[in-house]
Each structure stands twice: as structure tokens, then as C-alpha cells.
UniProtKB/TrEMBL annotation:
Belongs to the GatC family. Heterotrimer of A, B and C subunits. InterPro entries: Asp/Glu-ADT_sf_sub_c (IPR036113), GatC (IPR003837). It comes from the Bacteria. GO terms for biological process: glutaminyl-tRNAGln biosynthesis via transamidation; regulation of translational fidelity; translation. GO terms for molecular function: asparaginyl-tRNA synthase (glutamine-hydrolyzing) activity; ATP binding; glutaminyl-tRNA synthase (glutamine-hydrolyzing) activity; transferase activity. The gene is gatC. Signal peptide: none annotated. This is Aspartyl/glutamyl-tRNA(Asn/Gln) amidotransferase subunit C. Its EC number is 6.3.5.-.
Length: 98
């Protein structure tokens, strides 16, 4: 028998903004109860000397240093633009705001 009631599943579905039929609530109550049991088993296995982590391997962000380098001037950047307006690229309006 499930430890989660239909009301518990209905409450979670309401929080997630999911509309469920009555037969779906019964089916999902059992499935969610199994998931909660599996998470409980993982918590039992986790040792106190193992720190929590999101990835099994350490992640290193590989980026280049942010250095100032020569680049195009504003005029050079806009030279081949199909439309320019007041030193900026001209693009079609997508919002109807004035």
C-alpha cells in the first residue's frame, strides 16, 4: 500500500500546475511512493565522510583570460550592415511599443 495518498499526489500536481484524472492520481501515488523509497535507500547508503556533489568528477571552467585586444571601430563594424541607425545596427521592430 502506498504511503502517499491521492490527496498528496493531487497537491503536488497542483503545485506543478498539472491536471490529472482520478485514475492517474491512483497510478501516480504508487509510482511516487516507489521513488520516495528509492531516494531513502540512497540516503541510507550515503556515508558521512563522502561530501555531497553534483558531478562525479571535478569541473573546471576552461575559458581564456579577458584581455583587451584591437578590434573593429564602430564605423568598420557598421560598414556592411544592411541598415544602421545612430551608430547602431538597424533591425525590424518586433514590439508595438512607441
Amino acid at each position: 500500500m502506498s504511503n502517499l495518498s491521492r490527496d498528496d499526489v493531487a497537491h503536488v500536481a497542483m503545485l506543478a500546475r498539472i491536471q490529472l484524472e482520478d485514475h492517474e492520481l491512483d497510478r501516480l501515488a504508487g509510482q511516487l511512493d516507489q521513488i520516495v523509497d528509492w531516494v531513502g535507500q540512497v540516503n541510507e547508503v550515503a556515508a558521512d565522510d563522502v561530501p555531497p556533489m553534483s558531478h562525479p568528477l571535478p569541473l573546471v571552467n576552461v575559458t581564456r583570460p579577458d584581455e583587451v585586444r584591437p578590434s573593429l571601430s564602430q564605423e568598420e563594424a557598421l560598414a556592411n550592415a544592411p541598415a544602421a541607425d545612430d551608430g547602431r545596427f538597424g533591425v525590424p521592430r518586433i514590439l508595438d511599443e512607441e
